Amino acid sequence: MLVRFNWGEGFRAPSIGELYGTASRFDQEVTDPCSNLLAQPANVQANCINNGVPSNGSYTQLNPQLPVITSGNPSLQPETSEGYNIGLVWQPSFWANTAWSDRISFELNYSNIELDGAIKAQDGQSLLDRCAQTGDALACGTIARTATGTVSAISNPLINIGGLETQAIDFTVNWSLPETSLGTFTVRSSTNFLLEFNELVPTSSGIVAIAREGTERGSPDQAYPEVKSTLTLDWDRNTFGGSITARYISQVDEAGAANSLNATTYWDLQGRWSPAMLDDRVTIALGINNVTDEDPPGCITCGLNNFDPTTYDAPGRFGYIRFSYRQ
């Protein structure tokens, strides 16, 4: 049994681009909660009218993409962080060199990280929602509207948000089976459980925590699945080898839309050959990712063709050939 503990602090000063970067525009897919005003709750109507929306309900959002202006900020302060990790590794001797197991190990890690004063731009959808629902002066101050109520721009420079808080558990199993006439088989499993991911954002009344775990943020695209897991069966025999891998992503709920991105599993295959005449220094591998042609789940508010490319594979199978050389 091995027990380990790590603790650390971090410090990062803002870069020159973060301090002095010029303003740039991108059109973000958002839903304006002030659209069709008379159908909204009374508090939303009052807050939207205070933000410049006509009180007669004539404003309807026609374009799902609204202009968001991002820029550097010379007033940024450094980020600081503190985190620790507790880990356990167990390799039971009574499961070693048996008829069904050559070696097996279990590893469990718990991580807790707090980042204060994180440098980032806020989410445009969150600013619109917070202004409409609470009338928060800081959020409403970023939104400019025309006389008709249409959003002409959301000013969203980089700021030091309150910070980020995250907790996670990683569980890993490595299992080597005894060698047989068919070759050697190894099973590797790695699973991450996201327990908490809070984004702390400033408002006129203080810091508010936005829980991200189990959600899809939408544009800018980012999912926070509560479970991600990879399972690999590896085979080696003489100069040949191969593997089959399953990659699992749990369901997430889309923030700002009545939509869920269903749990997704990808299957990958790889075959490899290390020619004996080259002293096993060269390996040639052929592989196909997403063998079953699994499509990414649809995302209403995501900016790239209605799916999240930061978490899910692009549609279609992906094949590759790889050459590697070892000294």
Describe the structure.
There is one protein chain. The chain is mainly β and 327 residues long. It is 9% helix and 48% strand. The protein has four helices and 21 strands. The chain has helices at residues 16-20, 42-50, 124-134, 137-140, and strands spanning 2-12, 24-29, 65-70, 79-90, 103-116, 119-120, 143-145, 151-155, 159-160, 163-176, 184-203, 206-211, 215-216, 223-224, 227-237, 240-249, 252-254, 260-261, 264-273, 282-289, 318-325. The strands form four sheets. Strands 1, 4, 5, 10, 11, 12, 15, 16, 19, 20 and 21 form an eleven-stranded antiparallel sheet that branches. The protein has a four-stranded mixed sheet with strand order 2-3-8-7, with helices on one face. A hairpin with a 5-residue loop joins strand 17 and strand 18. Helix 2 packs across helix 3. The longest helix has 11 residues, at 124-134. The mean pLDDT is 93.
Class from helix and strand fractions: mainly beta
Supply Rg: 25 Å
Strand tally: 21
Report mean pLDDT, rounded to a whole number: 93
Distinct helical segment count: 4
Tell me the overall shape. elongated
User: Which sequence of SSEs, written as H and E, runs from N to C?
Assistant: EHEHEEEEHHEEEEEEEEEEEEEEE
